[in-house]
Structure formats: C-alpha cells, structure tokens
Design brief:
Layout lengths: L1 E8 L5 E9 L6 E9 L8 H15 L4 E7 L3 H7 L6 E7 L7 E8 L6
Parallel strand pairs: 3-4
Antiparallel strand pairs: 1-2, 2-3, 4-6, 5-6
Length: 116
C-alpha cells in the first residue's frame, strides 16, 4: 500500500486543506480517499472541491476503476454538498467505528461514471 498527499496552500505557504490518498488499500485498481481536511476558515471556498476534482482526475488518468471515501456521522451536509454532486453514492456504513459510537458512511464512485 502506498500513500499520496494532495495539499492546497495559499501564496504564503499556509495550508488550506489536504487529502490523503491510499493506493492498493483494497486492490490495485481502487483508490481510497483516506483523509480529507479543510481549514475551518477556508471551508465553502472551493478548496475541498478542487482537491476532490484533482483526486478524481488522478484516478481517471491512472486507470483506477473505483474510488472510495468515508464520512463520519454528522458530516452529512458536507458529504451531500461535497461528494454526491460528483456522482458518489452511499455504499453502506460501519457502525461503532470509534469509541464514542456513531457511524462511518462509505461512499463509492466508479471512475468511468465521473463526468467533469
């Protein structure tokens, strides 16, 4: 398994957000968007959208078949506004994934279905 990080920065070098991608997490043709973080004061400014678009283009250009990501319960609006508009569908959830309980919702997209 290998990891790649995508980072969005301001002209002064401060980090606005980053995505951590895992390759070969499930298999060699599946990309897993492991972590997505956008600085609070940069949310709803297009940073997450730009990083997600780049991730999808990376998957497409490197012949990945599917891309997965997960979202913690409570992030439904971010998930709906952020990934469903790109064609991601909820594939299921994992219950009690952390000590406080709650669910992780799993989203999946066939890369061939991604339309810019």
């Amino acid at each position: 398994m290998s990891r790649s990080a995508l980072v969005d920065t301001d002209h002064d070098g401060s980090v606005n957000g980053f995505f951590l991608l895992e390759i070969d997490f499930f298999d060699e043709k599946t990309l897993y968007l492991r972590t997505a973080v956008v600085r609070e004061n940069r949310r709803r400014s297009g940073v997450g959208t730009a990083l997600l678009k780049y991730s999808l283009e990376y998957a497409k250009n490197n012949n990945f078949r599917r891309i997965f990501l997960d979202a913690l319960e409570g992030n439904e609006q971010i998930t709906r506004d952020g990934v469903e508009k790109f064609g991601f569908k909820q594939a299921g959830y994992i219950d009690n994934m952390h000590d406080e309980g709650g669910k992780y919702f799993i989203y999946s997209l066939r890369v061939a279905d991604y339309v810019q």
